[in-house]
Design a protein that fits this description.
Number of helices: 6
Oligomer: single chain
Largest sheet: none
Helix content: over 70%
Distance between the termini: 30 Å
Shape: elongated
Length: 156
């Protein structure tokens, strides 16, 4: 559970930096001007990695390759209104790619921890209930019987 807290806090901090990096003004000039398509792409990467376990179960290398490749495709083919490299554009391209990579790594960690947690909960539920999970009333009655058999009462 501690790993999950740390992973979620890291992802929240990463998303905060991602969505507010343009607010950092150096010498009163807006020198960090990220293209608009990067924000929905970064958010889509985080949601997809957490929502679809296939992204968190495969290697981080393949997940990073997929999302950076998608970013590069959009940058080269669709949103090519400014050059990839040259002057400040080099730094902006590197910044955008690094921000997406950081979000992918953090979301991958959250997805992995969440997948492990859900697997453990499913294992415990199925191990205690056999092949099917018993109804809540039946389970609570069985739990009370075990407490009474162990000499633990609720009247303490």
């Amino acid at each position: 559970m501690k790993r999950m807290k740390i992973a979620l806090i890291g992802l929240l901090l990463g998303l905060t930096l991602f969505f507010n990096i343009e607010r950092l003004d150096f010498n009163q000039a807006n020198s960090i001007n990220i293209q608009a398509f990067v924000y929905p792409l970064g958010l889509a990467a985080v949601i997809a990695i957490i929502a679809f376990p296939v992204f968190s179960r495969i290697s981080l290398f393949y997940t990073l390759t997929f999302w950076i490749g998608l970013y590069s495709s959009f940058k080269l083919l669709t949103f090519n209104d400014r050059p990839l490299f040259g002057g400040i554009n080099t730094y902006l391209t590197i910044t955008e790619a690094c921000l997406i990579a950081v979000l992918v790594v953090l979301a991958h960690q959250v997805g992995r921890v969440l997948y492990d947690y859900l697997s453990a909960v499913e294992f415990v539920a199925l191990a205690s209930g056999g092949s099917k999970i018993p109804p809540l009333e039946e389970e609570s009655t069985e739990f009370m019987r075990k407490l009474i058999a162990a000499g633990i009462t609720t009247e303490q």
